[in-house]
Design a protein that fits this description.
Structural class: alpha+beta
Strand order of the largest sheet: 2-12-4-3-7-6-5
Number of helices: 18
Number of strands: 30
Strand content: 25-35%
Oligomer: single chain
Helix content: 25-40%
Mean pLDDT: 82
Largest sheet: 7 strands, antiparallel
Radius of gyration: 31 Å
Length: 732
């Protein structure tokens, strides 16, 4: 009897598709038909399906004329150049309109069809920037669900976050009032096993319209298993189907939440009754989810950088105290409270040979000595962190609840010098959606009995108490320990002055890297949003108005090229040293004109007016100059867009050996009390928080102007703001 684990189930080759889809597979080289779903005769007028094998679509003009005439099929080479990338069209088959999707996977080209379904309840506009004005995690995910409800509107919609071990937790929920809440509940790893998570990373939108409907078999000439990973109508796993039935759902829809190319979580939706979502609406749901993920990533990066800045400030204050002493041990003892608090520990021990000094809540000295001996014998890295130390070693080392979690930094192993931070046992419990223990059942397949993990039949809350663990040492905790390490290395080294100079130089480079890393996410967001907006509009217009569709395609291509070029330049710049900035005489007129046009389209109102006067040449770095004008002009257009007659004026004048550009707007102005913080990173004025932004742009401008030997200043009142950019005059 064979045993099949959940992670072994071959869900990418189910051998069938769902009943809402129709599929034809052709060989990528010969273009002959090699497989198809058995139901294609329901929409195409074909005789014996066996006659299709080895023949081309074009051999059956009476049956497949609508495919043959479609732009996507006539340009198949262009549309299938990239593997696993899906392209969309709409065609009419026997008087009905169908979505026509094409993608290439391995040696096959997939032609997939599903009927267009009009959504009469759709209540959505093409406004994509609302996610970026939210700086609260809970509000962001709730806003995503509220937005998606206007597109798909399932009975229950959840944001599901994956944990480190593959398990998950519901962190946001929108549901019908009469349904039980799953908010805050945990789900075991086996509910979405590894191969399923891998598929969610590859195919980011997944719908099961009716878990009770019969699937449609795939008929293959060679009887091979067809990989349906990228098929929108891929048949569902029987285990997952039973899981949904057990949960009371007849339909489900999910969208992957991707962060840094990793599967961070899912938007997962369930409906009590069968329900199909049109392909166009599924694509739009995917766009909104991607925007929310980008906004969340930006929000977290901003929060993380703020923490790093705060940590650096606290460590700098400690450095002053450290330099007062000639002995490291004395420095550590004097600052023991601050050192304990940096990683938010309950207690701390400073160890040097046989000397031991403690602070806060710590184990008994004998237990600490046991930990020291264990650490010297069983660890190799200079930093060791564990939140389950009491659970793993409590009995052998005689530990108390004060040592549930530890973090160790080895200053010098040979001298038994180390710092140990302690965290108490955390009274933790996890509410599972049902008992997470696995249950094995026997089933028959092709006359052979097999054992498989059975999907849970109950989702009643099951509480598990966790013992022997502390609160998690998160990335901030580890960063704090690393900061203490760096502080000790810097202040205790014999060549302190030389290292200090190197660190100062490194700090400058890191600040530049930070600035330009944020430039990428901050300034490339505009062309990315335009691309997505045009792609969505294109989806609904292909085939209806060819000329407009071509124009939109050209716009997308231009934005992609612009983004790729800018990203390349900025990444190259972020790697450069200070002396490698390329100053040259640059013409500004075309750059300002193009930035102004894009700013008006992205941030302006129909009434926005941009007046461009004289644009003299300046001495600057090409990429840096673009970044400066991009940020200043975007801000001017954006913050004046709510005026009755929004207006921006741009003018450059010559003043001796300098060129002065003045960008003026009649926008919201800068409050007097905010003026001393204008160029600090992430500073946002109270009157600007209703506008999209994260407070990075002016910091970037300030740093760039300093690097190229220029200056940025401003004048502001209730009538608007003028930014004054001073450049060096080009050499004659």
């Amino acid at each position: 009897m064979n045993f099949i684990e959940c992670h072994e189930e071959p869900i990418h080759i189910p051998g069938s598709i769902q009943s809402f889809g129709y599929l034809i597979g052709i060989d990528a080289e010969s273009r002959t038909i090699t497989f198809f779903s058995r139901n294609i005769s329901d929409i195409f007028n074909i005789g014996s399906s066996d006659e299709l094998f080895g023949r081309k679509i074009t051999d059956f003009p009476e049956s497949f004329q609508s495919i043959i005439d479609s732009e996507i099929y006539t340009s198949l080479d262009r549309f299938t150049r990239r593997k696993n990338e899906t392209y969309f069209d709409k065609i009419f088959i026997n008087g009905k309109e169908y979505h026509f999707s094409v993608f290439k996977s391995e040696s096959h080209i997939f032609l997939e069809f599903e009927e267009v379904v009009i959504n009469p309840n759709k209540r959505i506009s093409n406004k994509y920037d609302n996610f970026y004005i939210i700086d609260n995690e809970k509000e962001l995910w709730n806003h995503l669900l509220e937005t998606l409800a206007k597109v798909v509107n399932y009975d229950r919609m959840m944001v599901y976050k994956f944990m480190m071990d593959g398990s998950g937790k519901v962190i946001a929920e929108k549901k019908n009032e009469d349904m039980e809440s799953f908010l805050g509940l945990h789900y075991p790893e086996s509910d979405i096993p590894k191969q399923a998570r891998d598929l969610y990373l590859k195919k980011r939108k997944r719908i099961f319209s009716n878990v009770y409907a019969d699937t449609v078999p795939i008929v293959s000439k060679s009887h091979e298993d067809i990989d349906l990973t990228f098929s929108a109508s891929r048949g569902m796993s029987p285990v997952h189907g039973q899981y949904l039935k057990n949960s009371g759902a007849a339909s489900s829809f999910s969208v992957s939440i991707i962060m840094d190319d990793h599967l961070w979580g899912l938007v997962t939706c369930q409906n009590i009754e069968p329900k199909h979502i049109d392909l166009e609406d599924r694509v739009q749901a995917g766009i909104f989810t991607a925007l929310a993920a980008n906004a969340y990533s930006s929000f977290k990066s901003k929060s993380e950088l703020n923490y790093r800045l705060e940590l650096n400030e606290r460590v700098s204050q400690l450095k002053t105290g450290f330099l007062k002493h000639n002995n490291l041990f004395d420095s550590l003892i004097e600052s023991k409270t601050e050192l304990r608090n940096l990683p938010e520990a309950d207690g701390m021990a400073i160890i040097s040979d046989d000397n031991m000094v403690t602070s806060g809540s710590t184990p008994e000295p004998e237990s600490i000595s046991n930990i020291v001996k264990w650490a010297l014998e069983n660890t190799q890295d200079n930093i060791y962190v564990s939140r389950s130390f009491l659970k793993d070693h409590g009995e052998e080392l005689g530990l108390s609840k004060n040592a549930a979690g530890i973090a160790i930094y080895f200053i010098e192993r040979e001298k038994n010098e180390m710092l140990i931070w302690f965290r108490k046992e955390f009274d933790e419990h996890i509410n599972w959606a049902g008992n997470p223990e696995k249950k094995v059942e026997v089933f028959s397949e092709n006359g052979e009995e097999k054992k498989m993990i059975s999907p849970r039949t109950s989702f009643r809350i099951f509480t598990e108490n966790i013992k022997g663990y502390s609160k998690r040492w998160n990335s901030r905790s580890v960063s704090a320990v690393q900061a203490v390490r760096d502080l000790i290395l810097e202040t205790s080294h014999k060549n302190y002055n030389a290292i200090k100079r190197l660190n100062d130089e490194l700090k400058k480079v890191n600040e530049e890297l930070d600035s330009f890393s944020y430039t990428i996410s901050h300034d490339l967001g505009t062309p990315l949003t335009v691309m997505k907006l045009n792609a969505q509009m294109l989806l609904g217009n292909l085939g209806a108005d060819a000329e407009k569709s071509k124009n939109k395609i050209n716009t997308i291509i231009e934005e992609i090229d612009s983004m790729a070029e800018m990203m390349h330049d900025v990444l190259q710049l972020s790697r450069a040293k200070h002396s490698e900035v390329q100053l040259e005489s640059l013409k500004t007129g075309i750059t300002i004109q193009k930035i102004s046009e894009n700013a008006k389209m992205t941030y302006g109102s129909p009434e926005s007016e941009i007046i461009i006067k004289e644009c003299p040449d300046v001495l600057a770095d090409k990429t840096m100059l673009h970044q400066v004008f991009l940020n200043i002009i975007n801000n001017a257009v954006k913050y004046s867009s709510h005026r009755e007659c929004p207006k921006v004026e741009i003018e450059g004048t010559e003043d001796g050996q300098t060129i002065i550009y003045r960008i003026s707007d009649n926008g919201i102005g800068i409050p007097e009390e905010e003026k001393d913080k204008m160029f600090k990173i992430f500073n946002r004025m109270d009157n600007a928080k209703k506008f999209k932004g994260n407070g990075v742009g002016l910091s970037i401008v300030h740093r760039i102007m300093t690097r190229i030997g220029g200056n940025v200043a401003y004048e502001s009142n209730k009538e608007g703001t003028s930014f004054i950019l001073t450049f060096k005059k080009p050499y004659i």
